[in-house]
Write a structure and sequence with these properties.
Blueprint lengths: L8 E9 L7 H14 L2 E10 L11 H14 L3 E4 L5 H11 L7 E4 H12 L3 H15 L3 H4 L1 H4 L13 H41 L2 E7 L5 H9 L16 E6 L5 E6 L9 H6 L1 H8 L3 E7 L5 H14 L7 E6 L6 H10 L4 E2 L8 H13 L2 E9 L3 H10 L1 E8 L2 E9 L3 H4 L11
Helix pairs in contact: 1-4, 4-5, 5-8
Length: 432
């Protein structure tokens, strides 16, 4: 793989408009520029082309390749970044064509750029393993192009010419990468088992689980800090945090909840990353409620919402109850706030920076939590003290008193815990 972390590499961006209108090319390239800057590059120019379909050999048309080569030489670019994922053949052909314009020119695509950013930002062992898995999955089909220089130096025709040094080394490298992928998957499976055990413990406890999902840099970490008084890293850059973070979230009425921050999404999120981060994304699929955090001040917020919804569908989380949370409302004018409230009546406007709307958001979370619980009147014998403690820790205790038979409690109990209290239900007719 190629890494773009070297500071101040001059990057030329290349994008295609297929005319369908599914993706705004200018906005997509603006995001690609932010990605490049996040990874330490200096963007020196852009080249675009309108094509109905991608050129299978070189992504762009043959004449556009010549234009890119001219721009590389004129702008002294070290790096050409394509806005879509290139096939191994396209990448190899482009590197060969552009090498004549400048020595050591690197050609990468959006996927390689995102993987490089993830590699530099992952902090936990699981996060680093997830990135390494995605990198190796991306690398495997591209090994042939990396050994093309050896294949070109092989012997001429005749007996034995079909088995050259490059082909042998290619097969060795393929086996090595496949083995590395298997090893990483095995390590991730062990970590996933621990994560599953922790998740099941939260499920058995009846704790209401809330997950933050949203576009990268929408302010999820800031919102987590504001709601839970956590101290999670917050930076104004794409993919500042990758590792999921879970914090305790107290709710009105004594109900407990957990709030989990997850990796941010982006347009054209590589499928290898979705697969690699599957155990982390399970924090979303196992949630009782999703807070879909949106940057209210972004001009591309509707496209970002669509991109997040697409990923939620990919991980089969679209059916989970969700609240659209428009963050950064403090950056909007009063008229923009009024229009947003009118057009999105079910959404919640907040500002993690000023705390505006936070109380209302907590109220909506508490309401959602209450909807998943059942009102129960129970009489728990004195020899079941652990059950009384469970009631205080994981249910909403509305009222409590003691008599000669034990502890009488009026509780709002999460559905998962109703079976634990069912044997001690009081009959409303006779109080037994």
């Amino acid at each position: 793989m190629f890494y773009t972390a070297k500071p101040q590499e001059n990057a030329l961006l290349v994008g295609l408009d297929d005319g369908t209108g599914n993706v705004n090319l200018e906005e997509s390239l603006a995001e690609l520029e932010r990605l490049a800057v996040t990874d330490g590059a200096c963007v020196v120019g852009r080249v675009t082309q309108r094509l109905k379909s991608v050129n299978p050999k070189s992504y762009v048309g043959k004449g556009k390749v010549v234009e890119i080569a001219t721009a590389v030489k004129a702008l002294q670019a070290d790096l050409v970044i394509f806005d879509d994922e290139l096939t191994p053949t396209q990448q190899s052909n482009l590197e060969r064509e552009l090498s004549s314009s400048r020595d050591n020119i690197k050609v990468i695509d959006r996927t390689a750029l995102i993987l490089d950013i993830f590699a530099s930002h992952a902090q936990s062992r699981e996060g680093r393993l997830q990135v390494r898995l995605a990198q190796n999955q991306y690398l495997l089909p591209r090994l042939r192009g990396m050994w093309a220089h050896l294949a070109s130096n092989r012997m001429g025709g005749g007996v034995g010419s079909r088995f050259g040094e490059g082909e042998s080394q290619l097969e060795v490298d393929r086996r090595m990468v496949r083995k590395r992928i298997d090893t990483i998957r095995a390590e991730l499976a062990k970590l996933a088992k621990n994560r599953t055990a922790q998740r099941n413990a939260r499920l058995d406890s009846g704790i209401f689980k809330v997950a933050l999902a949203g576009y990268t840099n929408a302010g999820k970490s800031s919102l987590l800090n504001r709601l839970t008084t956590a101290d999670v890293l917050v930076e104004d850059q794409l993919f500042a945090t990758l590792d999921s973070t879970t914090r305790h979230l107290p709710l009105d009425g004594g109900r407990e909840a957990t709030l989990t921050d997850t990796v941010g999404f982006i347009q054209k999120l590589p499928t290898t990353l979705i697969e690699a981060f599957r155990s982390t994304l399970d924090e979303i699929t196992n949630a009782d409620l999703i807070l879909h955090v949106v940057d209210a001040a972004s001009p591309a917020r509707d496209e970002q919402i669509a991109a997040v919804q697409q990923v939620l569908e990919q991980i089969e989380a679209e059916g989970i109850p969700a609240i659209i949370v428009y963050n950064k409302a403090d950056l909007l004018t009063s008229e923009e706030v009024r229009i947003l409230q009118t057009s999105k009546p079910g959404a919640q406007l907040v500002s993690a920076a000023t705390s505006s709307g936070i109380v209302e958001l907590l109220g909506r979370i508490a309401t959602a939590a209450s909807a998943t619980s059942q009102l129960m009147e129970v009489l728990i014998p004195f020899n079941q003290g652990r059950l009384v403690r469970l009631a205080h820790e994981h249910t909403a205790v509305i009222s409590e008193r003691f008599n000669e038979h034990g502890a009488w409690l009026m509780l709002r109990v999460p559905t998962a815990l109703c079976g634990r209290f069912a044997p001690y239900l009081l009959d409303p007719a006779n109080g037994k």
